[in-house]
Design brief:
Porin; 18-stranded antiparallel barrel
Length: 550
């Protein structure tokens, strides 16, 4: 039944009118400042047709949103707010001129081949004084093998060690005709490590992919990021913690409306991803298959549903192709739970235009579905909830985000795939890890046209208990703590400033301090850890244009 529904959705997508039909274009990383600018424009009511739960966006989708804002900008009446909005639109028109010409928002001709062979160069210096944060290898619900340094988490899997970390990154992209595009982001890093850890002085491919775009369909092959969820950097399934995945992705390149009377259901977006998790797993090179559908039926509510399914790998329990497909679509097969790791995710993102575009959001993540209701909600379910105020003042120069996350003892774990939902020892979802909760706040303020101030606070508590777990053929039926460990607590504060000297040069400074007690569940193991960082980004913007598009 689910397979039939999926095929019907694919057929409807081929018939559906897109909000815009752009040329093929490349991904803009989720940490780029453009996402905050789009949040501001949406909070002023200028981008009503927008989905948040599936990011990062491609350049064409960002240009579509900018074009929509340009059409609606006259609705902003307040003089101070209008000045701020006009400044944002001026910057976006400069940065995304090529795509705005393509969708007709700006005048100009469209070359057959176009791109930026060297878009920008980035240098980062970071000094870190922090010991690794470990997770209980197996707490009775299953295994997870990962490591984290909380002061530098959610940085797209970039490797940092205690000591000196110096890195250089560049960004490159090209569009070949209307249907093909490619991008590359190499990274070179040098480390001066404290203690006995090995320095990682290497060259990495942070992002490397190509894509084919036709009408509303987009096929992408290579290494790129997935940030699914309501929060700024993703959610509980895919966040910005691990490095971009190596995958094949079939997706709607931008929001669309289904045809016929289905148009009344609003805008939609869906993705299907097949990723390889690499050799650093118990069963090397397992596969992760994920899909997500997002819908906004009104300007007040966005709904999302996703499923992630891990199976295969060298030496893993075998499922036939037919059984794998059946298990993916929810048709239980013999040995299916042992031979695969499946989780489900639901999200609600509410928008209140009358409250300056305030967002209220919740995400429910289920590490499988057990029939025992108490197990389902206590051990299977994790929760993320938050409120985002993109216009804390009227213009939008000040914003605030508050979040609470509670991760279940079973989060990211599995009894067979004992590395858990990880890649390169990084949790793919929330790096807080299983059996934990956290409260956080983040504030940003535009101090004039060229300077952004930011600050954050987080309190986190992690539990390292071991559980006695009872299972039957339908999954977990009961559990109880059999070995208590000391709870770990962390108090973190961060501060940063970003200053733009001109259109091409931007500088960054940051400081973070974290006080940890009972670190890694060892009683009395307390310490204060910190980082300091500085960076420069230079935007070259040499545009290459060849021929004219038909």
């Amino acid at each position: 039944m689910l397979l039939r529904r999926s095929l019907i959705c694919l057929w409807l997508l081929c018939l559906a009118p897109a909000l815009a039909r752009g040329y093929s274009s490349v991904t803009v990383p989720i940490e780029d400042p453009v996402y905050r600018k789009l949040d501001k424009l949406a909070a002023h009511g200028l981008i009503p047709d927008r989905l948040i739960g599936q990011r990062p966006y491609v350049r064409a989708e960002i240009a579509r949103q900018v074009a929509e804002a340009l059409q609606n900008v006259e609705s902003v009446k307040n003089e101070g707010a209008r000045d701020y909005v006009d400044r944002l639109l001026k910057e976006l028109k400069r940065d995304y001129r090529e795509e705005l010409v393509q969708n007709g928002a700006l005048e100009g001709s469209v070359p057959a081949i176009q791109g930026r062979p060297l878009e920008d160069g980035r240098m980062d210096f970071l000094y870190l004084d922090q010991e690794p944060q470990f997770y209980v290898p197996n707490n009775g619900f299953g295994g997870v093998r990962a490591v984290s340094r909380p002061l530098v988490e959610k940085r797209a899997g970039r490797h940092y060690q205690s000591g000196i970390n110096l890195a250089f990154e560049t960004s490159h992209w090209m569009r070949l005709g209307k249907y093909f595009s490619a991008q590359a982001e190499p990274r070179f890093q040098i480390q001066g490590v404290k203690g006995n850890a090995d320095a990682e002085t290497k060259v990495f491919a942070q992002r490397l992919n190509g894509r084919f775009t036709w009408n509303k369909l987009d096929v992408q092959i290579g290494r790129d990021s997935l940030n699914w969820g309501p929060s700024a950097l993703g959610g509980l399934v895919f966040s910005n913690n691990a490095r971009p995945l190596d995958y094949v992705k079939l997706a709607s390149v931008m929001p669309f409306r289904y045809p016929f009377f289905f148009k009344k259901f609003g805008i939609n977006q869906w993705s299907l991803v097949v990723a390889n998790l690499g050799p650093e797993q118990r069963f090397s090179d397992p596969w992760m298959v994920s899909y997500k559908n997002s819908n906004r039926g009104s300007r007040y509510l966005e709904i999302g549903f996703s499923q992630t399914f891990i199976l295969g790998g060298d030496g893993a329990p075998h499922l036939s192709f037919g059984d794998s497909v059946a298990e993916f679509f929810g048709v239980g097969v013999e040995d299916g739970k042992r031979a695969s790791n499946r989780n489900f995710d639901f999200e609600l993102i509410g928008t209140i235009p009358q409250a300056r575009g305030m967002n209220l959001y919740a995400e429910l993540h289920f590490e499988d579905f057990d029939k025992n209701i108490s197990v389902l909600f206590d051990e299977d379910m994790s929760f993320l909830g938050g409120v985002y105020l993109p216009r804390l003042n009227d213009s939008g120069t000040l914003d605030l985000r508050l979040e609470y996350v509670r991760l279940s003892p079973r989060y990211a774990r599995h009894e067979t795939f004992t590395d858990g939902v990880t890649e390169n020892r990084f949790l793919i979802g929330d790096p807080l890890g299983p059996d934990a909760y956290a409260i956080s706040a983040e504030v940003n303020y535009d101090l004039g046209e060229d300077t952004l101030l930011s600050g954050g606070f987080r309190f986190a508590r992690r539990n390292g208990d071991i559980y006695s777990v009872t299972r039957d053929g339908d999954g977990v039926t009961d559990s109880a703590a059999s070995f208590d460990r000391a709870e770990e607590t962390r108090f973190r504060t961060t501060a940063g400033v970003r200053h733009r000297f001109n259109d091409r040069l931007t500088a960054r400074l940051g400081l973070g301090v974290e006080r940890v007690q009972n670190a890694n569940f060892i009683p009395g193991n307390g310490r204060t850890e910190w980082l300091g960082e500085a960076g420069l980004t230079y935007y070259f913007w040499p545009s290459l244009e060849v021929g004219r598009s038909p």
